[in-house]
Design goal:
With about 300 residues, this protein is an alpha+beta fold. It contains eleven helices and seven strands. Helices cover about 40% and strands about 10% of the residues. The structure holds iron/sulfur cluster and FE2/S2 (inorganic) cluster. FE2/S2 (inorganic) cluster binds next to loops.
């Protein structure tokens, strides 16, 4: 399918021309020329989208837009994009096409494109998903793309992840054991590795936190990802000092810790790495109860 969108270079050339002509044109004429160039570019983009929309295999996307810094774009809205469909196309592919061909100001995060970095978690057709892992062919069209709910929007599809990172760091997500023999490899049994295997798969995408009703209503709740991270270290036999285990449990059983979870399973449903988050939280609740049992 041919898509006659003017090249960005073309626009650059036009601006260059305008600069060259500055010596002979008045500022008013330069402004008019720039406006005409911009209008021509926008018209060409619109025409390209219409051509693609008319074609049978075009995906229609409704994409959330919001720019707090540009007056006139401050009202949140949805922009519609028509993207030529290709077999194997992901939501991230479609967003990149829309950005590269129609609107360079469309803003979203991505990096690895293989479900490893966790940066492109968004709310697609009403569910938290990794865009690079989600096939267009698996979704109902038009595909609606929004930023992760319950987080502040920085711009378009980008949300502020600081609170999520703070919660992750609050459970001290690193080894603290002092039993490691100097210069020697710390051994772990196969069984223990199996036990913590799933919990180590977290990629810090924030999808679980965004899906959690409790986290939405309680800003201090540690949230499923942080609790899972604590589980990963609490259950690791290489960090086997009783005092440390106790310390980790105290963090987890605080007022806004594991007891806030109401086993709604929304986090488990959306986790792109299939981590059994709700199960891990329940297991830690049992550990907290056990540690507080007293026998007279
Ligand atoms: S637990 Fe799953 S959903 Fe939550 S941050 Fe980690 S990978 Fe993402
Ligand atoms: S781009 Fe890295 S997880 Fe999707």
């Amino acid at each position: 399918m041919s898509t006659q969108v003017p090249e960005q270079e073309g626009e650059a050339e036009s601006s260059a021309d305008a600069e060259t002509d500055a010596s002979v044109e008045s500022p008013q004429e330069q402004r008019m020329a720039k406006k005409a160039t911009d209008r021509a570019y926008r018209d060409a983009q619109k025409k390209a989208q219409e051509e693609i929309a008319a074609a049978e295999e075009a995906v229609r996307m409704k994409v959330f837009r919001y720019d707090p810094e540009v007056e006139g774009k401050q009202e949140p809205r949805f922009d519609e994009f028509h993207v030529p469909f290709e077999k194997g196309m992901t939501v991230l592919d479609a967003l990149m096409y829309a950005r590269d061909h129609y609107d360079p100001s469309l803003t979203f995060r991505h990096s690895c494109r293989q479900a490893v970095c966790g940066s492109d978690a968004m709310f697609v057709n009403g569910q938290q998903r990794l865009c690079c892992k989600t096939q267009m062919s698996d979704l109902e069209w038009p595909v609606r793309v929004e930023p992760l709910p319950h987080q502040d929007v920085v711009k378009d599809l980008v949300v502020d992840m600081q609170h999520f990172y703070d919660q992750m760091h609050s459970v001290e997500p690193y080894f603290q054991g002092e039993n490691a023999p100097d210069g020697e490899e710390q051994k772990q049994t196969r069984e223990n590795r199996e036990k913590i295997k799933m919990s180590t798969r977290c990629i810090w995408c924030g999808a679980c936190m965004s899906s959690c009703n409790i986290a939405a209503g309680d800003n201090e709740y540690l949230g499923p990802a942080a609790i899972n991270k604590a589980y990963r270290f609490y259950m690791d036999e290489r960090e086997d000092e009783a005092e440390l285990e106790e310390h980790r449990l105290r963090i987890l059983e605080q007022e806004h810790g594991v007891w806030r979870c109401q086993t709604q399973f929304s986090c488990t449903e959306v986790c792109p790495k299939d981590i059994p988050l709700t199960e891990h939280i329940q297991e830690l609740k049992r550990e907290a109860v056990k540690s507080n049992l007293k026998f007279w």
